[in-house]
Amino acid sequence: MGNLHLLKFYLFIATFFLAITCVHAQQTPIPKTDQSFDLAVGFGENSQTSYSLSWNKNYGLFSSKKLRLGYGIRFSGFSGKQLDYITAPADLTGDDATIDTLSMSKANTMALNAMINIQYQFHPKFKAGFNIDALGLGFGGEKDAMFISSENTGQFPQSLSASPTSFNALLGGDNDLGQLKSEFYVAYAVSTKTWLRAGADLTFSEYTTEQNLSYENDRFRNKAMLFFVAVSFNPFK
Fold first, then answer.
1. Is residue 3 part of a domain?
2. Among 117, 179, 220, 221, which residue has the fewest nearby CB atoms (within 10 Å)?
3. Are 208 and 218 in contact (CB under 8 A)?
4. Which residues pair with 11 in a beta bridge?
5. What is the mean pLDDT of residues 83-90?
6. H or E stretch including 14?
7. Residue 13 is inside which H or E element, if any?
8. Does residue 6 belong to any structural domain of this protein?
């Protein structure tokens, strides 16, 4: 995340906690369940952008219902220019000598994933949360790429084509597969139906080359940290 975006995020966090201390407690109860449609856009360095449209449902736990767990479906996209994708498989990323680069002049990946939500609702009007994609499909157009490797002495092409990895799975760290998005956020209710959210968006974007390259690898990943804003609307309330 760029320094400006990081500063904006910290200012938002500070404003959030200041508001917590100033707002008198309301008598409005926290609902046992809630669901909403959510539209988010993110911005980062090197013209990186992200977007998503999702549906979410959450359940309040224990008597206070402040800790909330849920699930949802998210369609998301990521794009950028002049991006480097590096070797993705976990069995190769532990050694710098086995990490190669796929340089993309333009990248554009999309995904449809099931997602997991965790929230803590401090107040009927304020909450903080985390969500992450768990399983789904990736898609997008084929792109030209430049393969950069010290091991390439002519046995592999330097210019080739790559497509977004088609299967997405949350397996933990570098074991992850495909296109996965996660968000850390704070949110404020502007009405009984509408929430505004803002925070950090970590998007994994992955391409698979048309042939195996050095170390029999064909998967390359870019990890992008972006600042995002979003609006959630509950039409069922």
1. no
2. 117
3. yes
4. none
5. 97
6. helix 3-22
7. helix 3-22
8. no
Q: How far is CA 12 from the centre of its chain?
A: 19
Each residue's pLDDT tens digit, 148-173: 998 888 899 999 999 999 999 999 99
Nearest residue to 103 via CA among 43, 150, 143, 67: 143
Which among 153, 185, 142 is positioned nearest to 52, based on CA atoms? 185
Q: Is the dihedral of CA 7, 8, 9, 14 positive or negative?
A: positive
Q: Residue 58 and residue 30: Cα distance in Å, rounded?
A: 12
Taking the mean position of all CA atoms in its chain, how far away is CA 188? 20
How many domains are there within the chain?
1
Q: Degrees (nearest 5) of the Cα angle 28, 29, 30?
A: 120
Residue 13 lies in a domain: no
Do residues 226 and 204 lie in contact, with contact meaning Cβ atoms separated by under 8 Å?
no
> Tokens 């080359």 map to which residue?
209
Distance CA 84, CA 103 (A): 5
Cα(31)–Cα(198) distance, rounded to whole angstroms?
22
Residue with tokens 């970590």: 202
Position 52 in a domain: yes
The CA-CA-CA angle for residues 65, 68, 72, to 5°, reads: 140
Q: Please write the tens of the pLDDT for every residue from 51-72.
A: 999 999 999 999 888 999 999 9
> Residue 227 belongs to a domain with what CATH number?
2.40.160.20
What is the domain extent for residue 209?
Answer: 33-233
Whether 36 and 74 have beta carbons less than 8 Å apart is answered as no
Structure tokens at 35: 């669901």
Cα gap 64→66, rounded to integer Å: 5
How many C-beta atoms lie closer than 10 Å to residue 64's C-beta?
9
